[in-house]
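Now produce a polypeptide, keeping tokens residue-aligned:
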Amino acid sequence: MTEQQKTRVTVDIYGQQYSIVGTESSSHIRLVASIVDDKMREISAKNPTLDTSKLAVLTAVNVVHEYIKLKEEYDRLMQQIKKEKDERKDD
């Protein structure tokens, strides 16, 4: 079993530098960090008194909420596709 090539990228999220190691491309890692940074800044603008820890937790909650909604929509669409394929098969 071969180990995937690891990529190390330094990113800036909400004014802090993080060194992230992963198997994705550096551009992917930077995109993820940028989305996290944007979401933190968006939440911070609406709640300027939040400390960084609470801001990070709220950001995680928001991102997971968005993920779950997208996954539910994906699952719904996949069921619809399966249903349409099954209906065509029966014709």
Q: What stands out?
A: The mean pLDDT is 94. The chain has two helices and two strands.
